[in-house]
Amino acid sequence: MIFSGFLIGLIFGALLQRSRMCFNSAFRDVLLFKDNYLLKMALLAVAVQMVLVHLLAQMGLIALAPSGLNWVANIVGAYIFGLGMVLAGGCASGVTYRAGEGLTTAWFAAIFYGGTAYAMRNGGVFSGVWKWFQGFGVAPFQYFDQATGEGFSRLYLQKAGQTLPSVFGVNPWIVVVICVGLILWYVFGTQTSERESKIGLKMAAVLLGAVGAFAWYFSELVGRNYGMGITGGWSNIWSVWLSGKPFSWDGLSVFGIVVGAAISAVMAKEFKLRMPRNPITYVQVMGGGIVMGFGATIAGG
Amino acid sequence: MADYEVSRVIDVRGEVCPVPDVETKRAIKGAKEGEILKVLVDYPLSVERIPESVKKLGSEVLEVRKNGGSDWEIYVKVKKQ
Fold first, then answer.
1. B18 noted as active-site residue
2. From CA A224, how far away is CA A227, in angstroms rounded?
3. pLDDT by residue (tens digit) across B33-68?
4. Which of A47, A261, A265, B24 is positioned for an S-S bond with A97, CB 3.0–4.6 A?
Protein backbone atom coordinates (compact mmCIF):
# COMPACT_ATOMS: atom_id res chain seq x y z
CA MET A 1 0.00 0.00 0.00
CA ILE A 2 2.98 2.25 0.39
CA PHE A 3 3.02 2.41 -3.42
CA SER A 4 -0.21 4.39 -3.27
CA GLY A 5 2.18 7.25 -2.45
CA PHE A 6 3.83 6.84 -5.80
CA LEU A 7 0.48 6.72 -7.63
CA ILE A 8 -0.87 9.80 -5.83
CA GLY A 9 2.42 11.54 -6.66
CA LEU A 10 2.13 10.58 -10.34
CA ILE A 11 -1.34 12.10 -10.63
CA PHE A 12 -0.40 15.16 -8.58
CA GLY A 13 2.77 15.75 -10.64
CA ALA A 14 0.84 15.57 -13.90
CA LEU A 15 -1.77 17.99 -12.52
CA LEU A 16 0.87 20.45 -11.33
CA GLN A 17 2.53 20.32 -14.73
CA ARG A 18 -0.71 20.98 -16.63
CA SER A 19 -2.02 23.62 -14.26
CA ARG A 20 1.39 25.37 -13.83
CA MET A 21 0.61 25.58 -10.13
CA CYS A 22 3.34 27.04 -7.97
CA PHE A 23 2.93 28.98 -4.75
CA ASN A 24 5.98 31.06 -5.47
CA SER A 25 4.56 32.20 -8.82
CA ALA A 26 1.11 32.58 -7.28
CA PHE A 27 2.23 35.19 -4.74
CA ARG A 28 4.72 36.87 -7.01
CA ASP A 29 2.22 37.22 -9.86
CA VAL A 30 -0.05 39.16 -7.53
CA LEU A 31 2.69 41.42 -6.19
CA LEU A 32 4.78 41.91 -9.33
CA PHE A 33 2.30 41.59 -12.18
CA LYS A 34 -1.03 42.23 -10.38
CA ASP A 35 -2.16 38.88 -11.78
CA ASN A 36 -4.26 36.78 -9.38
CA TYR A 37 -4.85 33.73 -11.61
CA LEU A 38 -2.57 31.24 -9.83
CA LEU A 39 -3.30 32.57 -6.35
CA LYS A 40 -7.01 32.02 -6.94
CA MET A 41 -6.27 28.51 -8.18
CA ALA A 42 -4.20 27.76 -5.08
CA LEU A 43 -6.79 29.15 -2.65
CA LEU A 44 -9.66 27.34 -4.34
CA ALA A 45 -7.67 24.09 -4.15
CA VAL A 46 -7.11 24.75 -0.43
CA ALA A 47 -10.87 25.28 0.05
CA VAL A 48 -11.73 22.06 -1.79
CA GLN A 49 -9.19 20.12 0.20
CA MET A 50 -10.36 21.69 3.47
CA VAL A 51 -13.93 20.50 2.95
CA LEU A 52 -12.94 17.03 1.72
CA VAL A 53 -10.42 16.39 4.48
CA HIS A 54 -12.95 17.33 7.16
CA LEU A 55 -15.55 15.12 5.47
CA LEU A 56 -13.12 12.19 5.47
CA ALA A 57 -12.47 12.82 9.16
CA GLN A 58 -16.19 13.14 9.88
CA MET A 59 -16.73 9.76 8.22
CA GLY A 60 -13.99 8.33 10.41
CA LEU A 61 -11.77 7.42 7.46
CA ILE A 62 -8.90 9.60 8.65
CA ALA A 63 -7.92 11.39 11.84
CA LEU A 64 -6.62 14.92 11.48
CA ALA A 65 -3.17 15.28 13.00
CA PRO A 66 -1.99 18.89 12.82
CA SER A 67 1.68 19.12 13.74
CA GLY A 68 2.60 21.01 16.87
CA LEU A 69 1.97 24.74 16.81
CA ASN A 70 5.12 26.81 17.15
CA TRP A 71 4.47 30.49 16.41
CA VAL A 72 8.13 31.49 16.43
CA ALA A 73 9.41 28.61 14.32
CA ASN A 74 6.46 28.75 11.89
CA ILE A 75 6.84 32.47 11.23
CA VAL A 76 10.65 32.66 11.11
CA GLY A 77 10.96 29.41 9.14
CA ALA A 78 8.29 30.41 6.64
CA TYR A 79 9.96 33.78 6.08
CA ILE A 80 13.33 32.12 5.42
CA PHE A 81 11.64 29.56 3.16
CA GLY A 82 10.10 32.41 1.18
CA LEU A 83 13.50 34.02 0.60
CA GLY A 84 14.86 30.64 -0.51
CA MET A 85 12.09 29.87 -2.97
CA VAL A 86 12.59 33.17 -4.78
CA LEU A 87 16.27 32.34 -5.32
CA ALA A 88 15.50 28.72 -6.19
CA GLY A 89 12.87 29.71 -8.76
CA GLY A 90 9.97 27.83 -7.23
CA CYS A 91 8.29 26.59 -4.09
CA ALA A 92 8.78 23.03 -2.84
CA SER A 93 6.25 21.35 -5.12
CA GLY A 94 7.16 23.88 -7.84
CA VAL A 95 10.80 22.84 -8.10
CA THR A 96 9.76 19.19 -7.76
CA TYR A 97 7.44 19.13 -10.78
CA ARG A 98 9.72 21.42 -12.78
CA ALA A 99 12.56 18.98 -12.19
CA GLY A 100 10.35 16.48 -14.03
CA GLU A 101 9.73 18.97 -16.84
CA GLY A 102 13.46 19.09 -17.53
CA LEU A 103 14.32 22.42 -15.89
CA THR A 104 17.92 21.68 -14.91
CA THR A 105 18.09 24.54 -12.40
CA ALA A 106 15.18 22.89 -10.55
CA TRP A 107 17.22 19.67 -10.24
CA PHE A 108 19.91 21.48 -8.32
CA ALA A 109 17.43 23.47 -6.26
CA ALA A 110 15.54 20.28 -5.30
CA ILE A 111 18.68 18.28 -4.49
CA PHE A 112 20.10 20.99 -2.22
CA TYR A 113 16.72 21.67 -0.67
CA GLY A 114 16.14 18.00 0.22
CA GLY A 115 19.74 17.49 1.32
CA THR A 116 19.58 20.45 3.69
CA ALA A 117 16.25 19.31 5.14
CA TYR A 118 17.73 15.83 5.71
CA ALA A 119 20.91 17.20 7.29
CA MET A 120 19.01 19.45 9.67
CA ARG A 121 16.96 16.58 11.02
CA ASN A 122 19.86 14.17 11.22
CA GLY A 123 22.59 15.89 13.17
CA GLY A 124 23.99 18.09 10.38
CA VAL A 125 25.71 21.41 11.12
CA PHE A 126 22.45 23.34 11.40
CA SER A 127 20.52 20.75 13.40
CA GLY A 128 21.18 22.76 16.58
CA VAL A 129 19.26 25.70 15.10
CA TRP A 130 16.31 23.42 14.41
CA LYS A 131 16.41 22.01 17.95
CA TRP A 132 16.61 25.48 19.44
CA PHE A 133 13.45 26.54 17.59
CA GLN A 134 11.66 23.40 18.80
CA GLY A 135 11.82 24.87 22.30
CA PHE A 136 9.17 27.45 21.39
CA GLY A 137 6.57 24.80 20.60
CA VAL A 138 3.09 25.07 22.10
CA ALA A 139 1.98 21.95 23.99
CA PRO A 140 -0.37 19.67 22.03
CA PHE A 141 -4.09 19.85 22.66
CA GLN A 142 -6.13 16.91 23.88
CA TYR A 143 -9.02 16.62 21.44
CA PHE A 144 -10.88 13.91 23.29
CA ASP A 145 -10.53 11.53 26.18
CA GLN A 146 -9.32 8.06 25.22
CA ALA A 147 -11.31 6.29 27.92
CA THR A 148 -14.71 7.93 27.51
CA GLY A 149 -14.41 9.13 23.90
CA GLU A 150 -15.88 12.43 25.07
CA GLY A 151 -14.23 15.73 24.37
CA PHE A 152 -13.77 18.68 22.05
CA SER A 153 -13.78 16.87 18.71
CA ARG A 154 -13.39 13.37 17.30
CA LEU A 155 -12.10 14.62 13.94
CA TYR A 156 -8.56 14.73 15.29
CA LEU A 157 -6.10 12.35 16.86
CA GLN A 158 -6.51 12.11 20.60
CA LYS A 159 -3.58 14.50 21.03
CA ALA A 160 -2.37 16.82 18.27
CA GLY A 161 -1.19 20.35 17.62
CA GLN A 162 -3.40 23.34 18.33
CA THR A 163 -5.68 24.47 15.51
CA LEU A 164 -7.93 27.48 14.95
CA PRO A 165 -10.93 25.50 16.24
CA SER A 166 -9.08 24.45 19.41
CA VAL A 167 -7.66 27.94 20.06
CA PHE A 168 -11.05 29.63 19.65
CA GLY A 169 -13.00 26.72 21.10
CA VAL A 170 -15.41 26.41 18.18
CA ASN A 171 -16.61 23.49 16.12
CA PRO A 172 -14.09 22.74 13.34
CA TRP A 173 -16.85 22.97 10.72
CA ILE A 174 -17.48 26.61 11.67
CA VAL A 175 -13.86 27.42 10.83
CA VAL A 176 -14.19 25.45 7.58
CA VAL A 177 -17.33 27.36 6.58
CA ILE A 178 -15.77 30.75 7.37
CA CYS A 179 -12.49 30.01 5.52
CA VAL A 180 -14.20 28.44 2.52
CA GLY A 181 -16.70 31.30 2.41
CA LEU A 182 -13.93 33.91 2.35
CA ILE A 183 -12.05 32.01 -0.36
CA LEU A 184 -15.18 31.57 -2.50
CA TRP A 185 -15.93 35.26 -2.16
CA TYR A 186 -12.39 36.19 -3.24
CA VAL A 187 -12.24 33.66 -6.10
CA PHE A 188 -15.68 34.29 -7.58
CA GLY A 189 -16.56 37.73 -6.26
CA THR A 190 -13.52 39.67 -7.47
CA GLN A 191 -12.11 40.16 -10.94
CA THR A 192 -9.87 37.37 -12.19
CA SER A 193 -6.84 37.89 -14.40
CA GLU A 194 -7.21 36.28 -17.80
CA ARG A 195 -4.87 33.64 -18.99
CA GLU A 196 -4.78 31.10 -21.80
CA SER A 197 -4.36 27.78 -20.04
CA LYS A 198 -4.65 24.08 -20.68
CA ILE A 199 -7.01 23.27 -17.86
CA GLY A 200 -9.08 26.09 -16.46
CA LEU A 201 -8.60 27.56 -13.02
CA LYS A 202 -11.66 25.91 -11.46
CA MET A 203 -11.07 22.45 -12.90
CA ALA A 204 -7.40 22.54 -11.88
CA ALA A 205 -8.24 23.67 -8.35
CA VAL A 206 -10.91 20.99 -7.84
CA LEU A 207 -8.61 18.22 -9.10
CA LEU A 208 -5.60 19.42 -7.09
CA GLY A 209 -7.69 19.79 -3.93
CA ALA A 210 -9.29 16.37 -4.39
CA VAL A 211 -6.00 14.56 -4.98
CA GLY A 212 -4.56 16.41 -1.97
CA ALA A 213 -7.46 15.20 0.19
CA PHE A 214 -7.35 11.59 -0.99
CA ALA A 215 -3.62 11.64 -0.29
CA TRP A 216 -4.63 11.84 3.41
CA TYR A 217 -6.77 8.75 3.06
CA PHE A 218 -4.15 6.60 1.32
CA SER A 219 -1.44 7.85 3.60
CA GLU A 220 -3.62 6.95 6.60
CA LEU A 221 -3.88 3.37 5.29
CA VAL A 222 -0.14 2.96 5.81
CA GLY A 223 -0.39 4.53 9.26
CA ARG A 224 0.75 8.02 8.34
CA ASN A 225 -1.72 10.64 9.61
CA TYR A 226 -0.90 13.35 7.13
CA GLY A 227 -1.35 14.73 3.64
CA MET A 228 1.27 15.16 1.01
CA GLY A 229 4.61 16.48 2.21
CA ILE A 230 7.34 17.62 -0.11
CA THR A 231 10.06 18.47 2.39
CA GLY A 232 9.65 15.22 4.30
CA GLY A 233 9.57 13.36 1.00
CA TRP A 234 12.84 14.82 -0.29
CA SER A 235 14.40 14.28 3.13
CA ASN A 236 13.32 10.62 2.97
CA ILE A 237 14.86 10.19 -0.50
CA TRP A 238 18.14 11.46 0.96
CA SER A 239 17.92 9.05 3.88
CA VAL A 240 17.36 6.17 1.42
CA TRP A 241 20.41 7.31 -0.51
CA LEU A 242 22.69 8.06 2.42
CA SER A 243 21.74 5.62 5.14
CA GLY A 244 19.84 2.85 3.35
CA LYS A 245 16.51 3.62 5.07
CA PRO A 246 13.34 2.33 3.36
CA PHE A 247 11.22 4.59 1.20
CA SER A 248 8.36 6.24 3.07
CA TRP A 249 4.94 7.11 1.69
CA ASP A 250 5.90 10.76 1.14
CA GLY A 251 9.31 9.87 -0.32
CA LEU A 252 7.57 7.76 -2.96
CA SER A 253 5.00 10.51 -3.57
CA VAL A 254 7.78 13.04 -4.30
CA PHE A 255 9.35 10.53 -6.67
CA GLY A 256 5.91 10.12 -8.27
CA ILE A 257 5.53 13.89 -8.73
CA VAL A 258 8.79 14.09 -10.68
CA VAL A 259 7.86 11.12 -12.89
CA GLY A 260 4.24 12.26 -13.33
CA ALA A 261 5.33 15.77 -14.35
CA ALA A 262 7.87 14.29 -16.78
CA ILE A 263 5.25 12.04 -18.45
CA SER A 264 2.77 14.90 -18.63
CA ALA A 265 5.39 17.27 -20.10
CA VAL A 266 6.49 14.74 -22.72
CA MET A 267 2.86 14.13 -23.72
CA ALA A 268 2.23 17.86 -24.03
CA LYS A 269 5.47 18.28 -26.01
CA GLU A 270 6.73 20.56 -23.25
CA PHE A 271 9.64 18.49 -22.03
CA LYS A 272 12.99 20.10 -22.63
CA LEU A 273 16.33 20.20 -20.88
CA ARG A 274 16.35 23.88 -20.10
CA MET A 275 19.65 25.49 -19.20
CA PRO A 276 20.16 29.13 -18.35
CA ARG A 277 22.83 30.96 -20.39
CA ASN A 278 24.46 32.39 -17.28
CA PRO A 279 25.99 29.55 -15.21
CA ILE A 280 25.81 31.75 -12.10
CA THR A 281 22.11 30.90 -12.09
CA TYR A 282 23.05 27.39 -10.93
CA VAL A 283 24.88 28.82 -7.92
CA GLN A 284 21.84 30.97 -7.18
CA VAL A 285 19.37 28.05 -7.26
CA MET A 286 21.63 25.84 -5.13
CA GLY A 287 21.85 28.62 -2.55
CA GLY A 288 18.08 29.01 -2.80
CA GLY A 289 17.61 25.28 -2.25
CA ILE A 290 19.74 25.36 0.89
CA VAL A 291 17.83 28.37 2.28
CA MET A 292 14.51 26.66 1.45
CA GLY A 293 15.50 23.43 3.19
CA PHE A 294 16.68 25.41 6.21
CA GLY A 295 13.47 27.47 6.42
CA ALA A 296 11.12 24.56 5.74
CA THR A 297 12.68 22.44 8.47
CA ILE A 298 12.52 25.24 11.04
CA ALA A 299 8.89 25.94 10.11
CA GLY A 300 8.13 22.25 10.60
CA GLY A 301 6.96 21.39 7.09
CA MET B 1 2.59 32.87 -40.23
CA ALA B 2 3.44 36.39 -41.17
CA ASP B 3 6.98 37.55 -40.71
CA TYR B 4 7.61 40.69 -38.82
CA GLU B 5 10.26 43.38 -38.92
CA VAL B 6 11.72 42.51 -35.59
CA SER B 7 13.86 45.24 -34.08
CA ARG B 8 14.97 43.33 -31.00
CA VAL B 9 15.14 39.71 -29.89
CA ILE B 10 14.81 38.85 -26.21
CA ASP B 11 16.13 35.36 -25.60
CA VAL B 12 15.02 34.13 -22.18
CA ARG B 13 15.22 30.40 -22.88
CA GLY B 14 16.38 28.35 -19.93
CA GLU B 15 15.95 31.19 -17.46
CA VAL B 16 14.48 30.65 -14.02
CA CYS B 17 10.96 31.91 -13.39
CA PRO B 18 10.19 34.93 -13.32
CA VAL B 19 13.20 36.15 -15.31
CA PRO B 20 11.42 35.67 -18.70
CA ASP B 21 8.49 37.82 -17.60
CA VAL B 22 10.60 40.51 -15.99
CA GLU B 23 13.00 40.76 -18.96
CA THR B 24 10.07 41.08 -21.36
CA LYS B 25 8.51 43.79 -19.26
CA ARG B 26 11.80 45.68 -19.12
CA ALA B 27 12.35 45.38 -22.87
CA ILE B 28 8.87 46.78 -23.57
CA LYS B 29 9.47 49.71 -21.24
CA GLY B 30 12.79 50.48 -22.94
CA ALA B 31 11.44 50.17 -26.49
CA LYS B 32 10.02 52.87 -28.76
CA GLU B 33 6.45 53.14 -30.05
CA GLY B 34 5.73 50.73 -32.91
CA GLU B 35 8.82 48.58 -32.43
CA ILE B 36 8.34 44.84 -32.80
CA LEU B 37 10.01 42.59 -30.23
CA LYS B 38 10.51 38.87 -30.54
CA VAL B 39 10.64 36.97 -27.25
CA LEU B 40 12.12 33.46 -27.29
CA VAL B 41 10.68 31.37 -24.44
CA ASP B 42 10.89 27.69 -23.58
CA TYR B 43 8.93 27.74 -20.36
CA PRO B 44 5.18 26.90 -20.60
CA LEU B 45 4.13 28.97 -17.57
CA SER B 46 5.79 32.07 -19.02
CA VAL B 47 4.17 31.49 -22.42
CA GLU B 48 0.76 31.65 -20.77
CA ARG B 49 1.59 34.62 -18.60
CA ILE B 50 3.68 36.91 -20.81
CA PRO B 51 0.90 37.69 -23.36
CA GLU B 52 -1.37 38.82 -20.51
CA SER B 53 1.25 41.07 -18.94
CA VAL B 54 2.05 42.53 -22.38
CA LYS B 55 -1.62 43.45 -22.82
CA LYS B 56 -1.64 44.98 -19.36
CA LEU B 57 1.21 47.26 -20.37
CA GLY B 58 -0.95 48.39 -23.29
CA SER B 59 1.12 46.73 -26.00
CA GLU B 60 -0.13 44.30 -28.60
CA VAL B 61 0.59 40.57 -28.90
CA LEU B 62 0.92 39.91 -32.64
CA GLU B 63 1.47 36.19 -32.44
CA VAL B 64 2.49 33.34 -30.15
CA ARG B 65 4.19 30.76 -32.34
CA LYS B 66 5.13 27.28 -31.17
CA ASN B 67 8.18 25.76 -32.78
CA GLY B 68 8.04 22.02 -32.42
CA GLY B 69 8.98 21.09 -28.86
CA SER B 70 8.97 23.34 -25.85
CA ASP B 71 9.99 26.47 -27.79
CA TRP B 72 7.89 29.49 -28.45
CA GLU B 73 8.28 32.85 -30.19
CA ILE B 74 6.13 35.67 -28.91
CA TYR B 75 5.85 38.72 -31.18
CA VAL B 76 5.01 41.95 -29.43
CA LYS B 77 4.20 45.32 -30.97
CA VAL B 78 5.15 48.02 -28.52
CA LYS B 79 2.56 50.70 -27.84
CA LYS B 80 3.09 53.61 -25.52
CA GLN B 81 0.08 55.17 -23.87
1. no
2. 8
3. 999 999 999 998 899 989 988 998 899 999 999 987
4. A261
